[in-house]
Write a structure and sequence with these properties.
It is built from three helices and no strands. By secondary structure, it is mainly alpha-helical.
């Protein structure tokens, strides 16, 4: 999710009260995000080990999508 996606979602929540709650375009594990960042910015020092927290939590952007919000793919 990009900064523009977050800004669009925030504006939508201000304009439409039905858009309450958390939203995610997709769920990404910390390990996967570091692998992606490493492939783009290999010179940074990234964490080597991870503790995944909240793996069973389910979050969705469906409420925002029903209001017309769309995220930009990574």
């Amino acid at each position: 999710m990009s900064v523009r996606d977050v800004a669009d979602a925030l504006l939508l929540t201000y304009e439409k009260p039905k858009a309450q709650g958390l939203c995610l375009a997709y769920i990404t594990r910390a390990r996967d995000m570091v692998e992606k960042l490493t492939s783009i910015y290999p010179n940074y020092d990234y964490p080597k080990s991870f503790i995944e927290v909240g793996a069973d939590e389910k979050m969705s952007s469906k409420k925002l999508e029903h209001l017309g919000w769309r995220y930009r793919p990574l």
